[in-house]
Amino acid sequence: MDKQSRTKGTNQPRVFLSYAYEDRAVAESIAEHLKSAGTQVFADRYELSVGDSLISKTESALSSSDYVVVLLSPNSVRSNWVQSELAGAFSRDMINRAVTLLPVLIADCEVPAPLANLRYFDLRADTEKGIDELIWELRSAPQIDFSRLNARQFEQLVADILSKIGFKIDAVKTDGGIDIVASSPHQDAFGTGKAQHWLVQAKHYAHGRADLKSVRELVSQISADTENNTGVVVTSGQFTSAVQEWATSQRELGIRLQLIDGTGLKRLLLRHPDVATKYFEEVG
């Protein structure tokens, strides 16, 4: 059974497709491929009816989407409209709703700074292959359901994915507090610089958001340690705005702290389907 056939009958992801007017032919082709694979697509340049407000229709589509797919080209990088949509995708409301941003490179260009650290889909050399990979991710992501795991399984998943991206797992604890101790002899995958020791909390929530208490506890342990540790909090849900703001204030004070929410963790798992399949059998 091919990828498109397997997609039909599943929960349809809702995709907002952002692109520059000059790239409309490519955008319409991509949109049709996504739709034929069972994806609900709002492409802002050709689904507007007479009398629709472009701004209000775009804001409505953004707020009701699961994914924002941004087509990157010299045209879109220069486009004020696409830059406005990017700003909307990065707004607090989008982050709190766990909307996932997926950059798609359709022509050589300088990738905008907000997207520089995100994995992108490359359609420049092989458009069909790139679209297939994009469809695979849109189809697979809903199957990664952290509520199917218990706390112990979630801790092990976090250990496995950290190991996969280059960390050495020194210990996985079961006595509360720090869940995982890891080390990295080289510059880490999160771009925070060289770090020998990592203290990791894996916070599993069937429902709800990670609260500030656990992050405060981790920072307290980092501050008390003399080995220049870096702290990482990984959650199956989303961080509250209070957590995000407090973490920013701690970084400004020199505390090395990394937050990975459920959306970020899902993105890592999609880059490593063998780990995703281990915990979610049908992925891929």
Radius of gyration: 20 Å
Q: How does the major sheet shape up?
A: 5 strands, parallel
DSSP, total strands: 12
Number of domains: 2
What is the H/E string? Answer: HEHEHEHHHEEHHEEEEHEEHEHH
Helix content: 40-55%
Note the beta-strand portion: 15-25%
User: What gross morphology would you assign?
Assistant: globular
Report the CATH superfamily of the largest domain: Toll/interleukin-1 receptor homology (TIR) domain
Judging by the overall fold, what is the CATH architecture of the largest domain?
Answer: 3-Layer(aba) Sandwich
CATH class bucket of the largest domain? Alpha Beta
Number of helices: 12
Secondary structure blueprint with pairings:
Blueprint: H1 3-7, E1 14-18, H2 24-36, E2 40-43, H3 54-63, E3 67-72, H4 74-78, H5 80-89, H6 92-96, E4 100-105, E5 121-122, H7 127-140, H8 151-164, E6 168-172, E7 180-187, E8 194-203, E9 209-210, H9 212-224, E10 230-235, E11 238-239, H10 241-252, E12 257-260, H11 262-271, H12 273-279
Parallel strand pairs: 1-2, 1-3, 3-4, 4-5, 8-10, 9-11, 10-12
Antiparallel strand pairs: 6-7, 7-8
